[in-house]
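Note to self: the last two entries modelled the partners one at a time, which told us nothing about the interface. This time every component goes in together.
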Amino acid sequence: MKKCLSLVVIFYSLLFANCKNKTAQPHQKKMAIVVSTLNNPWFVFLAETAAAKAKALGYDAKVFDSQNNTSLESDHFENIIVSGFDAILFNSTDANGSVANVLKAKVAGIPVFCMDREINSPDAATSQILSDSYSGAVSIAKYFTQQLEKKGNYVEILGIVGDNNTWARSKGFHSVVDNYPNLKMVAQQSADFDRNKALEVMESILQAHPDIDAVFCGNDGMAMGAYQALVSAGKAQKVKVYGFDGAEDVITSISENKVAATGMQFPKVMAETAAIFADEYVKGKRDFPKKIPVAVELVTAKNINDYTAYGKK
Amino acid sequence: MTVANLKYSKSLSKFQSLIALLILCIVLSILTDKFFTAENGLNVLRQIAVNICISVGMTLVVLTAGIDLSVGSVLALCSAVTAGLLKNGIEIPAGNLWIGFTLLGAVLAGLLLGFLLGCFNGFAITKFNVPPFVATLAMLTIARGFTMLYTKGHPISNLGDSFAFIGTGWLFGIPVPVYIAAVVVLVAVFITQKTKIGRYIYAIGGNEQAAKLSGINIKKVKITVYAIAGALAALGGVIVASRLDSAQPNAGISYELDAIAAVVIGGTSLSGGKGSVWGTVMGAIIIGVLNNGLVLLNVSPFWQQVVKGSVILLAVIIDKAGESKD
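The predicted structure of the combined assembly is written out below.
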């Protein structure tokens, strides 16, 4: 009897769900947000903002996490194409590897808008809204050389060594700093964009090079890890720490004069622009700029009051 | 072979990983004068404290011929919950209620959560006969998912000075995490060598059927072992969060591999029944010294991975060579 009753309930609830779908939302448009990883607060923020903006524009939004894996990303694209999404807001796992995925969507007639990370194809994506990591690192490097008065020993902590952003930042930084022969890099190590790894790597580096003047880190998480190591070694006052991203912890630390500077990226601007473009595309607009570089701004103790985590106040 | 001889060769194989460690230290001391200093020694010990906590738990599991792949995710979830309780407490919107946590309360809650997640692993393995590899693989994903849900993907930072003492404090010239790891090791050595459950752990790993026939409650022992592994992973999580003054949602990724490496380098057999906690401690120190030494020498990050893998392989080959002589 009980079984029978529950079957009836299930049946009715199915019926009810069906009715609701058909009547209430006949032509609900939807956007897919595909991000390289959700294991990093910066990308979580990018995905959340894109989803929020898409919802605000009247779309259903679904976030797909590629877990830094281009083949998983490929699966996501296939599922997205099959389930009939209207647009893809896309943060790629790999500049070259992701091109094929974007082309698949293009063939299926779904526009792709790249956020933050570039893909190496002139016309696969409808538009690319990109963070200019290289010139961001250049402006950090200029401030860096100025603060160190063009001389001293420094350490560089790299992100994941297989990642495009790691090298865009490192190359931008060295394009300036390498012009000053008295600025000497005593160690260059990777900490995989990870706070704990940066802490451990920095502790070991401090054993080998106790008398350094500055640390340049490929992201803010690592900058916080390096700073923690300097605190426990009693060197936080002497050694200047530079980060990249504009994450909450570092913004707070800059205002407390603990971290020297960071490069503020604007995930909110990028995510919202991509969502607005996608909306315009759905409404019929076809003429978009192929690339929009979003400048990375230098944040220091001097202008910290203009900024908050991941953007301007 | 006389009894004395047998004892001698047994204790020699026990010291194999110690010998490997000594060779490694001597080589590093020759290559850089920064390596063999008291400060760097403490530095390495502090860095490996977390891996020691995890890999001691892993040793108990591996001795029963099991494996626990979930430790990294359990570490992340427990560190996030500890940090979250400490910072924000629990809010119950229904009764407009807010429960705050003291430092001790938050840490104990984190450890308890690790213990329960471990129990769950053990329960799935013993009650439903899920192979340990699969059960803990599932927990690896589930616990990471809950970590993301609990933190919404953002780190929980600024946890206060008293909490920071656990990971960054010093007592009598030695970092606090080193004391924690030492207590964990001593308790585990006592359990494995002096207690009934210790003998049961070895018996189950040696021959589960025989252990069962001799009346050992296999389910109870296994659940206990996974629960301990979970609680120790949680303890590692508390130390990590305290050291960073922040619980990171992506903490502990691939820590299970470091722990398994420490267990294996330390000479514990993955098929169970053979090995020791001391061996694992040696294994963890070898990994820590290697990580530290490669950075001191400023070896390229690309080469570091190759070197680390090769050393693991070499250590096990030496260990196996010693074993076959018996």
